[in-house]
Specification:
Elements: H1 11-18, H2 22-29, H3 32-52, H4 60-76, H5 82-91, H6 93-96, H7 99-117, H8 125-143, H9 152-177
């Protein structure tokens, strides 16, 4: 699909290249798009496991950052064409049509974790806003011009730094919800 284009490759071609029957192909993947989305779904599983395992040492916001970066690291190192696959998912109209359900599960995993650990209602605005902001950071890094598979460590470093900025911006809001007064920053000196 990367070489010949998504539209030029049929499900039959993929099944033949994999040495499986058409029936087996559709049993496991459901559609041609399912082949491309399957690794994304594996990344979702790693994300959910990272959140469940308590990454972040009891800090729900730290756990979000650690789980997103960790699942992305696992995904990047699981395939030689992970980023190229993402770019195919992100650019082809038929694949983008299925994006909502996959990304909704990604965002819901983050939001549910923050809601549960932050004693908020499921579907509350604060965890949903945080999940949306993290999604924006994730997409921005993957869509960043010049990002290539060979530059994986730089991508992970940027992702971690930008997620840290986002989750720390949400920390005072979460603390306020928990009834904790966030520390105030000292006023910046005014220029003379």
């Amino acid at each position: 699909m990367l070489r010949d284009g998504y539209d030029a490759v049929s499900a039959d071609t993929v099944a033949a290249a994999a040495g499986i029957s058409r029936t087996t192909f559709f049993r496991y993947f459901g559609s041609k798009a399912g082949v491309v989305w399957a690794p994304f779904d594996a990344t979702l599983t790693w994300l959910e496991e990272g959140l469940r395992d308590g990454a972040g040492g009891g800090d729900p916001l730290g756990a979000v950052r650690v789980a997103v970066v960790g699942s992305t690291r696992a995904a990047l190192h699981s395939s030689d064409v992970w980023l190229e696959r993402f770019q195919l998912l992100d650019s082809h109209p038929s694949l983008r049509a299925e994006a909502h359900e996959h990304w909704e599960r990604w965002r819901a995993s983050l939001a549910d974790h923050v809601a549960t650990t932050g004693r908020l209602e499921r579907g509350a605005a604060l965890p949903m806003a945080l999940a949306g902001a993290c999604h924006g950071v994730f997409l921005a890094e993957l869509r960043r011009p010049g990002t290539v598979d060979a530059d994986r460590d730089a991508l992970l470093g940027r992702l971690d730094a930008h997620l840290t900025t986002v989750v720390e911006a949400f920390r005072p809001l979460l603390l306020a919800h928990e009834g904790v007064t966030p520390p105030t920053a000292a006023p910046s000196p005014r220029p003379s």
